[in-house]
Protein 1
Amino acid sequence: MSRGRIRACLVSRFRRITEQIFRQSRSGGAGIIRDYVKPPRRRVAENPPGRRRNGDSKQALKYIALIAALVTLLMSSAPARAYVLTNRDTRPQPERVAYAEPDTAGYTFLEKTGHMEFYYREDRDVFLIIDTRNGYSWKTGLDTPFNQDTDRAVSDADTPEEKALAAVPKEDRLNATYIAFANSLLTVELYDDAFNLNLTSSASHEGAESALERVGDGQYRLSVNFTAIDLQITAYITLNDSGITGEVPDGAITGPGAANMASIILMPFLGASGGVVQLYDPVLGRYDQKIAKPMIPGYIFVPDGSGGLIRFKENSVEINKYVGSVYGVNPAEAMFYYDEEAYDVAAKEPLMPVFGVAHGDRQAAFAAWATDGAEH
């Protein structure tokens, strides 16, 4: 039975009860009331003939008022109808994003190709890409200093004004390893003696050296020497009017450290935004406040099955990272065999090696994809 029919039946039932109570009240009886109102525990003397019972009349009026209130509530309240959005629905377009002119301080201009301008920051291995059509910019890394360098600069400053100037915002909950990972153009995953995975990046605070060299029109070579593990990798970078392309051939990986290598990650923080930073308090003389960076309206496209969108929003819980095997899973690299057979229904793997990021409502976006890779 629908909600509308249930409400109609209840109203009809209350109306019949009310009519019967009025008829019984006019005739001096209270038979209906006794059926619906619990009689008092204390016995009272019967009223003389011809006189109405005051207690029953009061109970009848109370009951009538209660019924009238319920009927009014049922008649006035229409069933609420609202559609609850789920992840299967198309959401509204994000709001428009307001952005300032790109800051090129600390960057070296490389070249302009079509409507793309390219800059490079050598100390952090970060490319800055500016779309001259709308002035919007993207970075291949987070572009943030190491916390220990910031702390040293604040400590070495002499006056409070100099300390406040040196105290740039620090990324919260990022140590030196992950700051290097967030900045670097190239990162390597390595197994240690206990078969644990460790990260080492081209712009690490120590243990790595990198240099970018121009080898032709739009052609660059990034040479990375991981001195701590005796591993050398060369990445070839192409800049054109379509964007930036990175390639690491098999022959460009040399050194004994390659035997412990698990994977190579290119531009892991391409287009990254958001996060929390620590702010310096000049009165207290320390970093004492944490604030969230402004949220950019937009979304990320991930190749989950046929594709999915992850909207940018404030989340009260930690979000797991999206991981997919584009060219297949290699069971020989799994630490435990049951990792590959954890579920009866296999997780969706990417149908295409592509992802993307969009900012604002049809304002700025990019797509990144793999063009070639080896099996497993």
Note: The longest strand covers residues 231-240.
Protein 2
Amino acid sequence: MKGLTESPFSQWHQRLPELHALARPLLQSRAVQRLASVTFLGILSPRFRDVIDSPLWPAVKPVAVEDGSRYDHTLGVALVALALARKFDFSERGQRYAVAWGLTHDIATWPLSHTSESVFTAVTGMSARNLRAGILLGSAEVPERYRLAPILRDQGIDPVALASLFDRSATPADEELALFKQVVRSPLTPDTLEGMWRCGVVFGVPVMHPDEVVSAFLRHRGVACLDRRRMPAVIDFWQGKSTIYEQYRLLCYNYCFCKGFQQRGQVAMLGALLLVLRHLHLDHARVDPVTP
């Protein structure tokens, strides 16, 4: 694509053997692999700079860094989660759960990523959170080819235990999972660390690398703590994140809403769905309504 530089995120792909050793079948599942076709920044990705009139990529800015896909991001999150598990001296089982959390945190991401999430939720009547739980637990609402419960069980991972790491349910009885949940329910999740660093690279904002922030974590009497000697790395990360939110997030969301992106997207998707149903010779009387 014209005006894009080579992505600097290949470091995660170079470490694929580490993920293969713990979760190869999950990594190779259709639910995870499909994320390779979903842009990380959705419609705000620089790869669409010649398609839409975006304030993020004006013509006066001739070069942009490729943001990568949700699959690329997922690899990074899984490796950051693995680094955290190793920092906490987890068993192989605990590391496997950490990697599984990273590989599945975005499995319910729709095309065009979060910029289209509200549209798909309105059309399908299912939130991304509920869809992820359905994929993990093997819900009948999810096509069989995307259900992960059998793969997880074969890997020694309890789908219910993994799904509970994403919600506000009670603290797991397992000490390692309880410790890991403390982090993934905090402001410094592996998802946040990789995602903000990735955005920083794309937008040209200095953001501390996830590995530097992970090095600040400590395990002390069953509690996830931060080493005060490594706090400068955490503060630098937070400052970079704050800059991105202040300079870009408001701009992005204002752009989407002012342009009526979500409203037009919902209308377009409903129209496309009707065309598909007509092609299949289905009418509304033969289609079960989907309710939230």
Note: The radius of gyration is 20 Å.
